Amino acid sequence: MSATQEPPPDAQGARTSASGVRERLLDAAELLFAELGYAACTFRAISAQSGINQGLLHYYFTSKQNLFTEVFLRRAHVIAARRVALLDAAEAQWGGGHVPLETLVRHFLTPALEMAQQGEGGRAFVRIHSQLRGEAGDLGLALRRQAFGASTERYVSALCAACPHLSAEAVYWRFNFMVGSYLVVSSQAGRLEDYSGGACAANNMQAALDQLVPFAIAGFLAAPPAANAAPTALANAKLPGRTRA
Fold it and tell me: Cα–chain-centroid distance for residue 232?
C-alpha cells in the first residue's frame, strides 16, 4: 500500500491508520496462533478477536502464511538483535579474546526469557516459537533460519572457542539442548508447578534464568562421549516397530 492510499474502513466503517490496523491484527493473530496453532487458526477467528473485518486481513497480509510470518518475525528479530548487541559488547570487553562460557550462555538466554515477560504477547510468541520448533516443515525452518541464523552462527562459533574440549558437532548438539530447554521454561506450560507441588513458579523468569544458566554451562563443560564407548541401553532396547537383524 502506498503512502497516499488509505486503508479500507474497519468493521465499524471508520478509517484508521494503516499502522494501527496492522498492529491490532498482528496482536490478535499472535494470541490465536499461540492458542490454536497454525493449522487451526483462521482469518475468521482473527477477525472476531480483533474486531476488524476479514477484508482487511486479506488486504494487508494476502494469506495466512504471510500473516504468520510477520507475527513470528516481529518479535524474533528483537530477540536476535538483542543477542547480537550483547555479544558485540562482550567481545569488545574481552578485547577480541575468547568470551567466557558463562557470559555466552547468559547473553544467549537472557533476551528470550526477557521476551517471555513482555505481557501476553511476549508469552504468546514464546509458545508459537516452541510450537514451530516442534513441527516439521519448510516454513518453520525458513522462519527460524531467517530470524536467528546469523546470531546462531556467531554464538556457536564463540561457544566452540570457549569449549576447546568439544568438537563442533558436540557444541551443536549441546546448543540444541540449550535452545530446547529455554523454550520449555519460557513457554510456561504449567507442568513445573504440577510436579514441584507448587514449590516452583514457571512465570518467575529470573529464577528460571538463575537455574538454566548453570545447567547449560554444565552441559557444555561435560566431557565428550568416548569414541569407543559401549552401546547404551537405549541403543540396545527393542523399540516398538523395531526389528533386529
Answer: 32
